[in-house]
């Protein structure tokens, strides 16, 4: 069987397709270079509080509802079944995004209260979970409300407590200073003194880091807390850390010390 001689029309369209592929490849490489350069410059010029604010703004500007997975991932299902108290326990969910985890946990029978700093994600979370169960608030709001008794955007009753706290996927790494991460965990410990604190850990792939800080054009600045750091934080709170480094995601649970 012989191959027919390509027509002029085919050769032109083939050439266009191949050139387009090359341009897309160059565009991806250029995008990566621009991202690294941008992150390096911003990391050197911005204060940590400004980096955290920019991370929220970038996530807000980049947020697309169709990027959010529907329901829980398999590793989350196993994690929650193993570490969360049984329904109808109450769970505070920070950095809730569009409400993926909060909605799934509600369907399992949990009582949830969620908060999310991104305006775009917060609006969708209201639709998904219910406006009375979601606040547009940040981890700084949680710390100010729980540890310092200040009035913030986080609507929590005085001396409110929960059976568990869940810090949304990878969000713990957006708190850039180690001391601030411990302060956040202190707030979580205060509001769920007898329950677990669950947090997932950002996993860098090919993203370049500057002084241990990663920059994502769609998500801003992140650090990757180590198991050693989590162990020290847990000891400071009289908790036991259970850290999983299994693929596809690393995660940790800080469990109250039974002793």
The CATH architecture can be named as: 3-Layer(aba) Sandwich
Beta content comes to: 15-25%
Average predicted local confidence, pLDDT: 89
Low-pLDDT ranges: none
Describe this structure in words.
With 259 residues, the chain is α/β, with parallel strands linked by helices. It has helices at residues 8-45, 48-62, 74-83, 100-107, 119-129, 139-148, 178-191, 227-236; strands at residues 90-94, 111-115, 134-135, 164-167, 197-201, 209-210, 213-216, 220-222, 239-244, 250-256. It has a seven-stranded mixed β-sheet with strand order 3-2-1-4-5-10-9, sandwiched between helices. β9 (239-244) and β10 (250-256) form a beta hairpin. α6 crosses α7 (178-191). The longest helix is centred in the N-terminal third of the chain and has 38 residues, at 8-45. 36% of the residues are buried. The model has no long low-confidence stretch (mean pLDDT 89).
Summarize the structure.
The protein has 259 residues and is α/β, with parallel strands linked by helices.
Name some characteristics of this structure.
single chain, alpha/beta, Rossmann fold, 10 strands, seven-stranded mixed sheet, 259 residues, 8 helices, globular
